[in-house]
Amino acid sequence: MPWLEIHINTSRSDAGRFEYALIKADALSVTLQDNADQPIFEPALGETPLWQETRVVGLFNAEVDTAAIEEKLKLTNQGAYSQHNPFKWHIVEDKDWEREWMQHYHPIQCGDNFWVCPSWQEPPNPEAVNLLLDPGLAFGTGTHPTTFLCLEWLSQQTLNDAQVIDYGCGSGILGIGALLLGAQSVLGVDIDPQALLATQDNAQRNQLDAHRFPVVFPDKCSEEPVDLVLANILAGPLVELASTLSPRVKAGGKLCLSGILATQADAVIKAYADTFQFDPIARKEEWVRLTATKLA
User: What single DSSP character describes residue 215?
Assistant: First the structure.
């Protein structure tokens, strides 16, 4: 059946009041969106940033009394409502939204002979190393610059029999890539149970034995140093995790970090500089990849 969305154009200071009012009006979901093409990148720890011009969107089933909803919003937000545009309702077509994005996801070439391919499509080059992926609800499709930068780097490495940790494994894309490119085993680590499930599903989809790619929560991560640690997370957590990740790389082993804005690269490098020698920074759009070798 169709759904109805109410769109409320408001300000950063008033968005929270409209969000609360929609929740009290039994909205099925409430979303805050940028209403002026204002980019917001990684927030500081504990910060929840909003756009100066914010659109608050509430989702309701099609039978809802729209007039009653509007009246509730006006009563609880009289000052905010008088300053902004009227409420606007939109019909939302009923779709399988989890799968809607699939029609826009196409194979991605990450190296001379290395592709990431949607699992529901035929690889464009069957003779290449093809990573078959269905990310489900986990992060990691290869389309984001941070993931692409890591896959591109992996395609250039000699990974024969390497032992790897994929810290923040998401869909498992980096760990699976490492295995397909020659690694012996990968330990996937994530705080999200959905990510661990997606990683296991994608490993099986690529016909990889489960024992080659076990997955664990961070508190179960092995302390045994490995040849390569991959971590495509965010700059803040990467800085905080320096004392956790650094000991897990063997002397002479490699570290690959991403999820970092160009303006944050120096801070991340500084957190690891005592024990790693960094390569030149690789950049794609506003994002960077940092790779390094552990000092003896």
Answer: E
pTM here is 0.70
288 pLDDT above the threshold of 90: yes
Alpha-carbon separation of residue 196 from 137, 180, 220, 245, 265 (angstroms): 11, 19, 13, 19, 28
* Residue 138: predicted pLDDT: 45
φ, ψ (nearest 5 deg) of residue 37? 55, 50
- Residue of 11, 94, 103 whose CA lies nearest to 51: 11
Note whether 202 and 172 are within 8 A (CB): yes
pLDDT above 90: residue 228 = yes
User: Which residue ranges form the domains of the chain, and what is each CATH number?
Assistant: 3-94 (3.30.70.260), 140-294 (3.40.50.150)
Strand partners, 130: 115
d(CA 48, CA 22) in angstroms, rounded, equals: 19
